[in-house]
Write a structure and sequence with these properties.
The complex is a heterodimer of chains A (about 325) and B (about 425). Helices cover about 35% and strands about 15% of the residues of chain A. By secondary structure, chain A is an alpha/beta fold. In chain A, the strands form two sheets. Chain A has a five-stranded parallel sheet. Chain A has a four-stranded parallel sheet with strand order 2-1-3-4, with helices on both faces. Chain A is globular, with a radius of gyration of 19 Å. With about 425 residues, chain B is an alpha/beta fold. Helices cover about 30% and strands about 20% of the residues of chain B. In chain B, strands 1, 2, 3, 4, 5, 17, 18 and 19 form an eight-stranded mixed sheet that branches. A six-stranded parallel sheet of chain B has the order 9-10-11-14-15-16, sandwiched between helices. In chain B, strand 14, helix 7 and strand 15 form a beta-alpha-beta unit. The chains are: A alpha/beta (about 325), B alpha/beta (about 425).
C-alpha cells in the first residue's frame, strides 16, 4: 500500500514525529539515548536552559488527564527555551463538542510548532500527525493502550545507565500488560536494542497469549517470570481493574504478582527494579522494594526529562 | 421503451447460457435473446461489443441511510450508486432511524424507491420493535408492505428466549430471519482479536463472538425449524460451523462482504479508519477460508455491505470512527477480482452476485423469484452490461455514493480493479449509462 510509509519518518529516514517505537531503527533509538546523555548535565547546571527551541511554541494537548507526564514534558520544553502552552482539553473544547481535528486546526492557526499529545484512544496521535500542517511535529505522550514512546525511551536510558549493554539481559515486565502502552513501547524498544530475553508476567486476563508474536516469552507464574532477571519493570495496576472480571481483588493480585523482597531474591543479585509511576504501594510493589536498594524509580524520573528534551530537540531539527 | 443490446456476450449463470447474442427488451421484459425479430425497432441501442451482458446484480446488504442518517446517504445518491455498480436489486437492513418496524415506514421507502426507478429495493423488517430485542414486530403486516425477511441488523438479541420466540413466530409464516452472528458481549471490540490488535492496543473481537452466536442460532434452528440467513461471516471457524450445519440439513444460507473477502487485519496499517468495519477484518487464514467457501457454495452470496459514513464520523481515532465503507459501486469489480484470483469461470463468479442471492431470497421475491438475477426470455429486464477487460482506479470523489470511504481507494492501495459497468437496465429502463457510451 502506498500510504504505508512509517509516518514518523521523513523521506531521509529522519524522525519528524515520535508516535511509536515500533518501526524505528536501532540507530534512531541510540541517537536519542546519546543525545539525552548530553542533556543530563544541563539539568545539573545552575541555569538549566539551552536555547535549542527558543521562539518555538510547544502545545501540551492532554485529552486524558495526567499531571506527571505533562509536567515532565513542560519542564523539558522549558529547559530547551520553548514557550509552553498547556491545554487541558479533557475539560475544555472537546467537552463543548469540538472535534479532535477542529481543535488541531485551531491550534495550528495559532502557529504551534509542536504538539505533545495524550489521548485515551489508540492511534489518535497518528490522526493528528496526518492532519496537522507539515512544519508541525507531534510527540505521542501516551495513546490508549498503544504506545508511550518517551516512557519506553526513558526506560531504555535507565537500563543502559545501570546495565551498560542490552545484548545479554533478561528483562521481566510484570502486571497489566494488555492495557499497558508502556509495556508495548518497552517491548518494541527492548527487541530493537537486542535484548535476548523479554518476559511478560501476569495472569491470563492481563497477559494475552498472542503477545508472543511481539517477541516476548509469556509467563503466568511470577517466580518463573523474574528468576535470574536483570531488570524488573513493574506496571501500574489501574484502579478500575483491581476488582471485576479482570482480577478478583488487589489483594490476590499482590499475593501472586506483587513484588516483595522475597520474590526479588529470585532475580539476579544486582537486578534493578523499575516502575513508570505513579506506584500503588502494596498492590503491585511492596514499599520495601520501591524504596530499597534495587529500585531505580526516581532516577527514571530524572532521566525522563533529559530523554524528552532529546526527543523534542531532534524532531524539531528535522523537516517533513 | 424498447431497448436493443447488440454484440455482447450474454452470460446467464442460472441457465449456464454463455454466448454472443443480441438482447431485446420491451415493456420492461426481455423479449428475445439471440433471434431478435428483424422488425424489432428499438428506441435505444446499446452497443455491447467487447462487453458482458449479465443479469443485474442482487446485493443482499446495502444501507441507504434513509430515514434518519441523511447526512451520510440519501435514497437518491445511494440508488444512483447501485445503478452505477450494475446492482438492480438490493436488500437493505432495518437499522435506520427510526428502525423499519412499522409498515408505514416500509411503504414510504418502497414508494420513494419506485419513483426513482434506479434499483429495486427489498427492505428487511426489524425483527423486534426498535431493534430492542424485546417485543416482536408485526411480521405479517410488514411482509404485506414488502419486507422480504426480518433482521436485527447489527444489534444482537441478548435474551435467548426472545430469540427463540422470534424464530418460532417467523417460522410459522415461513419468513426468513437474517442474523449477523455476533455475541453482544464478546463483540464489543473494535478490531479482530489477534496479533495486530494486540500490537496496536486495540480492543479485540474474538472468533468466539461469531462461533458462540452460530452455535446458539443452530441449536435454535433445530428446535424451531426456522430458516435463517447468516449475514457477513468473518471467520474460518464460522465457515466450518456453517458447512456442518448445511450438511446436517438445517435451513441456513449465508453471505460474506467484499471487505472480508479481500482484506485482513494487517490492512489496518497505521490505524487507517477506512478499515474500521463491522464485522472486523480477521486474519489471512480466515480470509482464505471465506474465499474458498464462497467458491464452493458453502457461502451462498457476496454482498457489498454498503455503509456510507460521513467524513466527520471517519476522521476520528480508529476506535471512535464509525464502522462501514461504501461498496455498491465496487461489488462487481471485487467479485471479478475474487473470481479471477480463484480461477473461477465467469458464470460461476457472477452467480454469487446474481442467481445465488435470488435463491437466498426465494419466495419472498414473489413473482420476481423466477426471473430476477437471471436472463430469460419473458423475464424482467434487469440487466448489467460491463466491460470485463477495463480496469479502473477507485477515486472516492468520483463515486456516486455519498459515502466516500473505502479500503479500496486507489490512493492507498495503488491497485486498479477489474471490470467497468457500461449500462444498467432496471425493468427495461436505462438506470445507468457510462459516459463512454
Amino acid at each position: 500500500m502506498l500510504s504505508r510509509r512509517n509516518p514518523q519518518l521523513n523521506a531521509h529516514g529522519e524522525l519528524i514525529h515520535l508516535l511509536s517505537i515500533e518501526g524505528l531503527p536501532k540507530a534512531v533509538l541510540t541517537h536519542i539515548l546519546d543525545t539525552a546523555g548530553t542533556f543530563l548535565s544541563v539539568n545539573d547546571r545552575e541555569v538549566k536552559k539551552v536555547p535549542l527551541l527558543r521562539g518555538k511554541s510547544v502545545f501540551n494537548l492532554f485529552f486524558e488527564n495526567s499531571t506527571r507526564t505533562r509536567t515532565t514534558f513542560e519542564i523539558a520544553a522549558k529547559r530547551l527555551s520553548a514557550d509552553v502552552i498547556n491545554l487541558d482539553i479533557a475539560r475544555s473544547s472537546t467537552a463543548k463538542g469540538e472535534s479532535l481535528l477542529d481543535t488541531i486546526s485551531n491550534l495550528s492557526a495559532m502557529h504551534a510548532d509542536m504538539f505533545v499529545v495524550r489521548h485515551s484512544e489508540s492511534g489518535a496521535p497518528y490522526l493528528i500527525a496526518q492532519h496537522c500542517a507539515p512544519h508541525v511535529h507531534v510527540v505521542n505522550a501516551g495513546d490508549g493502550r498503544h504506545a508511550h514512546p518517551t516512557q519506553g525511551l526513558l526506560d531504555m536510558y535507565t537500563i543502559r545507565h545501570f546495565k551498560k549493554d542490552f545484548s545479554n539481559l533478561t528483562v521481566a515486565i510484570v502486571g497489566d500488560i494488555v492495557h499497558s502502552r508502556v509495556a508495548r513501547s518497552d517491548i518494541h524498544a527492548l527487541t530493537t536494542l537486542g535484548v535476548p530475553e523479554i518476559r511478560a508476567v501476569g495472569p491470563k486476563t492481563l497477559v494475552p497469549g498472542d503477545l508472543t508474536q511481539m517477541g516476548v516469552r509469556v509467563c503466568h507464574d511470577m517466580a518463573e517470570g523474574i528468576r535470574d532477571a536483570d531488570v524488573i519493570i513493574m506496571l501500574r495496576l489501574q484502579n478500575e481493574r483491581m476488582s471485576g472480571a479482570m482480577l478478583p481483588s488487589a489483594g490476590e493480585f499482590f499475593k501472586n504478582y506483587g513484588l516483595t523482597d522475597g520474590k526479588l531474591a529470585l532475580a539476579k543479585p544486582d537486578a534493578i527494579v523499575m516502575h513508570p509511576g505513579p506506584i500503588n504501594r502494596g498492590v503491585e510493589i511492596d514499599s520495601s522494594v520501591a524504596d530499597g536498594s534495587h529500585s531505580v524509580i526516581l532516577p527514571q524520573v530524572t532521566f525522563g526529562i533529559a530523554v524528552r528534551m532529546a526527543v523534542m530537540s531532534i524532531i524539531a531539527g528535522n523537516e517533513a | 421503451m424498447k431497448v436493443l443490446i447488440k454484440n455482447g456476450r450474454v452470460v446467464d449463470p442460472a441457465s449456464g447460457r454463455d454466448e454472443h447474442a443480441d438482447l431485446a427488451v420491451a415493456a420492461g421484459r426481455i423479449v428475445a435473446i439471440g433471434r431478435v425479430p428483424a422488425d424489432f425497432e428499438s428506441a435505444r441501442l446499446i452497443d455491447a461489443s467487447g462487453c458482458i451482458v449479465a443479469p443485474g446484480l442482487v446485493d443482499l446488504a446495502a444501507r441507504l441511510r434513509e430515514p434518519g442518517h441523511e447526512h451520510e446517504g440519501m435514497l437518491e445518491s445511494e440508488l444512483n450508486a447501485a445503478a452505477a455498480g450494475g446492482v438492480t436489486s438490493l436488500v437493505c437492513p432495518p437499522d435506520t432511524d427510526p428502525a423499519l418496524d412499522e409498515p408505514g415506514l416500509v411503504d414510504m421507502l418502497k414508494f420513494r424507491a419506485r419513483k426513482l426507478s434506479l434499483c429495486r429495493l427489498f427492505p428487511l423488517g426489524a425483527l423486534t420493535r426498535g431493534l430492542q430485542g424485546e417485543v416482536l414486530t408485526e411480521m405479517a403486516e410488514l411482509t404485506e408492505s414488502g419486507c422480504v425477511g426480518f433482521s436485527q441488523a447489527e444489534v444482537p438479541i441478548a435474551d435467548t428466549l426472545v430469540m427463540m420466540r422470534a424464530l418460532q413466530y417467523a417460522a410459522t409464516y415461513g419468513y426468513t430471519v437474517w442474523l449477523r452472528p455476533q455475541d453482544g458481549c464478546l463483540g464489543k471490540g473494535v478490531a479482530a482479536s489477534g496479533a495486530v490488535a494486540t500490537r496496536l492496543g486495540l480492543s479485540g473481537v474474538p472468533v468466539a463472538a461469531e462461533t458462540i452466536a452460530l452455535h446458539t442460532i443452530f441449536e435454535l434452528l433445530r428446535a424451531t425449524g426456522a430458516r435463517v440467513h447468516l449475514c457477513r461471516l468473518s471467520s474460518a471457524a464460522g465457515v466450518a460451523l456453517l458447512r456442518a450445519a448445511k450438511a446436517e440439513g438445517l435451513k441456513v444460507t449465508a453471505d460474506v462482504s467484499i471487505n472480508s473477502l479481500h482484506l485482513t487485519d494487517v490492512d489496518i496499517g497505521f490505524f487507517n479508519s477506512a478499515m474500521r468495519l463491522s464485522p472486523p477484518l480477521r486474519q489471512g487464514q480466515d480470509r482464505d477460508a471465506l474465499r474458498a467457501a464462497l467458491a464452493d457454495g458453502t457461502i451462498d452470496a457476496l454482498v457489498s455491505d454498503h455503509t456510507p459514513v460521513d467524513a466527520d464520523a471517519k476522521t476520528l481515532p480508529f476506535g471512535e470512527a464509525e464502522p462501514g465503507a461504501t461498496g455498491l459501486e465496487l461489488l462487481l469489480s471485487l467479485a471479478l477480482k475474487w473470481g479471477g484470483d480463484a480461477g473461477l469461470d465467469l458464470p460461476s463468479t457472477l452467480a454469487r452476485v446474481t442467481s445465488a442471492p435470488v435463491q437466498v431470497l426465494g419466495e419472498a421475491l414473489g413473482s420476481l423469484a423466477s426471473s430476477a438475477g437471471r436472463l430469460v426470455e419473458g423475464g424482467v429486464a434487469d440487466v448489467c452490461v460491463f466491460d470485463p477487460s477495463a480496469t479502473w482506479a477507485v477515486n472516492p470523489a468520483g463515486l456516486k455514493s455519498q459515502g466516500k470511504h473505502t479500503p479500496f481507494d486507489f490512493a492507498s492501495t495503488g491497485t486498479a480493479l477489474p471490470g467497468r459497468v457500461r449500462a444498467t437496465l432496471v425493468a427495461g429502463t436505462v438506470a445507468y449509462l457510462s459516459p463512454a457510451q
